[in-house]
Amino acid sequence: MNLPFWVRRVHKWIGLVIGVQALLWMLSGVYMTVISLEVIHGDHLAHAFDEPLRRDGERLDVEQLARLRPGLESFKLKRFLDKEVYELRVGGKASLVDARTGELLSPLPREQIVARAKDLYQGEAEIREVTWITQAPQEVIKRPVPMWAVRFDDRANSTLYFSPDTGDLLARRHDLWRWFDFLWMLHIMDYDTRSDVNNNLLRVAAGVGLLFALSGAWLVFYSFRRRAQP
Asked: Which positions, given as ranges, span the membrane (predicted)?
């Protein structure tokens, strides 16, 4: 049996099979190291902080909140646009009420979401489109629906996603993030959810890549050994 011949042949064919994926691994890896995670996360697109709350504000107390929403599980005080609100959770569902009057504010209408988006957005572009979403697109597939999507007319096609119940900023998306998501899909070879780093296809590709590397290392060792022989 001519072992070097078969190792070379195996190495060559494995290289043809795994070469494209190895190139994708390298290209996607370069992108992930060149573009910082802060940029990918969209921290530059929208700030996520509000003005501090006043200590002496006129607000409903806990007993009043409990009477207002029977079955109250939890609550927190925060600022939404220009007013203080309570975020109440009953039966696992959150809603906003005016902290002074107890008026129910959820679900938040389009006009308030637009105002919230303009308040958080750090760019200078105008809003291009506001969409009510009941089926989450791939880029926010893990976020709860329904939600509001506010798209800005900037070079990055920036989109901010908001909860209609709490007004929270659920996600920041832009073209650099979308490229990252696409390359991440190619990198981990999960073409469905783009999140499973333990899928069988990746395991097989990694195993074949290891075999390619080992066969190449053996051939290098064998070649130098042959040259060293008198």
From this structure: 12-34, 201-224
Q: What is the pLDDT of residues 49-78, one digit of tens each?
A: 777 777 777 899 999 999 988 999 999 999
3-state secondary structure 130-166: EEEECCCCHHHCCCCCCEEEEEECCCCCCEEEECCCC
Write down the pTM of the prediction. Answer: 0.84
CA distance 27 to 36: 15
Q: Distance between CA atoms of 94 and 105, rounded to whole angstroms?
A: 11
Residue 225 has pLDDT above 70, yes or no: no
Angle, helices 3-34 vs 200-228, to 10°: value is 120
Do 77 and 84 form a contact (C-beta atoms < 8 A)? Answer: yes
